[in-house]
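2024-03-11 09:14:02 INFO worker-7 job=invfold-0412 stage=load source=structure_tokens
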């Protein structure tokens, strides 16, 4: 076991910068939706397009960005992505003040920031193993996931309060501050990233195939990717219509909706706190499977919620889902990062992200179509029922035999520092 992560300045800079960034990133999604509705009177299909454009870049660009991440300095790419997202989002309040705001601008902002997020996220997961030892990956990922879980619950409530005070377009500056802060902390990291292999002249297609072959060639990685992609597909379907469902079917106001989101955050924080302890008891593979079972089945309660018990039932379901998702993510991501060498981290992470995030925009559109066709309640019932079988990807796979995080990479050769 290496030095405590709290005593590693470079990891702390990454963690602090990422924490500020993910809190700030809660402002623009809510602010843009409210501005689109209240200022531009956007229609439901336009909200679906916004959600689609924000996530479809992972499907379009994930694999080539993975090649980029293994050819160029990841930290530098992350800094450029942060600065780029900050500058693009700064155009929203400026356009509003100038009277130029339009749904077309929101489409452009969603797609361009989504594209830069592909670069950041793929490089980010590949960069972390260069800052910490493999034995510390679970600890590192649990800390980062705790920040994301807290931001996901507290951030929207804080963003809503800010929007009430300064207006939706101006609240987008919260993201701008967050991204610039993240870039600043990343720039402050002094540890050399390590040797990046010179792949000039190599075929990008060949490099992409290598990343794909690692994920699909290892039954454990393949099963985890399939499980994550499936749960993302169905959860994005019911998640896309969750808020209007709560408002229309139960008459929830913003306070009740906020309580449900806060419960989700509480579950996520608890999951992050226990994400190191649980694998010690039931193993890494057992933790991944247990998380998958829980996040597959817990959303079923959403469909059966009714009457005066709706609020506690929905809050409990969301909290359990978030708890399960965090313990699953920490163990599965840490396992993947430790399993493969630094030389292929970018392409493996890109392949995985393309698979597991590529289903999100499709699932979101499906949720809108189901809601439009059957109504919110029946649409959610269809999505959570089909999603309940997600854990079957893992139950009969070699994942159940994973006991610990690998000490050394089993796939590829590590880079020379």
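2024-03-11 09:14:09 INFO worker-7 stage=emit residues=417
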């Amino acid at each position: 076991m290496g030095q405590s992560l709290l005593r590693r300045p470079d990891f702390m800079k990454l963690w602090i910068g990422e924490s500020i960034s993910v809190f700030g990133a809660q402002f623009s999604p809510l602010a843009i939706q409210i501005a689109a509705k209240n200022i531009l009177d956007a229609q439901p299909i336009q909200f679906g397009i916004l959600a689609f454009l924000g996530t479809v870049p992972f499907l379009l660009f994930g694999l080539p960005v993975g090649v980029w991440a293994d050819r160029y300095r990841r930290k530098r790419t992350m800094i450029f992505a942060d600065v780029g997202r900050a500058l693009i989002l700064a155009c929203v309040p400026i356009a509003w003040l100038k009277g130029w705001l339009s749904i077309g601008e929101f489409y452009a902002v969603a797609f361009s920031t989504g594209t830069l997020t592909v670069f950041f996220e793929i490089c980010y997961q590949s960069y972390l193993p260069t800052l910490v030892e493999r034995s510390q990956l679970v600890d590192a990922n649990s800390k980062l996931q705790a920040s994301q879980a807290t931001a996901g619950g507290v951030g929207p409530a804080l963003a809503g309060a800010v929007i009430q005070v300064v207006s939706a377009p101006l609240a987008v500056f919260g993201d701008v501050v967050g991204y610039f802060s993240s870039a600043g902390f990343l720039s402050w990291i002094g540890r050399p990233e390590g040797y990046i292999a010179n792949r000039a002249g190599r075929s990008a297609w060949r490099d992409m195939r290598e990343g794909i072959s690692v994920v699909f060639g290892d039954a454990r990685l393949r099963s985890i990717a399939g499980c994550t992609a499936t749960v993302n597909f169905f959860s994005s379907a019911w998640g896309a219509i969750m808020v209007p469902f709560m408002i229309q079917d139960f008459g929830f106001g913003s306070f009740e909706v906020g309580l449900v989101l806060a419960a989700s955050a509480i579950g996520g924080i608890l999951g992050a706190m226990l994400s190191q302890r649980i694998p010690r008891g039931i193993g890494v593979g057992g933790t991944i499977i247990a998380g998958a079972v829980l996040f597959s089945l817990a959303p079923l309660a959403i469909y059966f919620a009714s009457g005066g018990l709706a609020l506690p039932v929905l809050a409990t379901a969301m909290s359990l889902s978030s708890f399960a998702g965090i313990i699953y993510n920490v163990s599965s991501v840490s396992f993947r990062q430790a399993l493969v060498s630094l030389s292929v981290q970018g392409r493996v992470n890109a392949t995985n992200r393309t698979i597991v995030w590529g289903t999100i925009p499709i699932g979101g559109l499906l949720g809108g179509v189901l809601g439009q066709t059957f109504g919110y309640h029946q649409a959610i019932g269809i999505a959570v029922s089909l999603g309940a079988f997600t854990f079957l990807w893992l139950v009969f796979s070699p994942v159940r035999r994973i006991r610990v995080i690998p000490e050394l990479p089993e796939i590829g050769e590590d880079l020379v520092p």
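2024-03-11 09:14:09 INFO worker-7 stage=report msg="The chain has a mean pLDDT of 86."
2024-03-11 09:14:10 INFO worker-7 job finished
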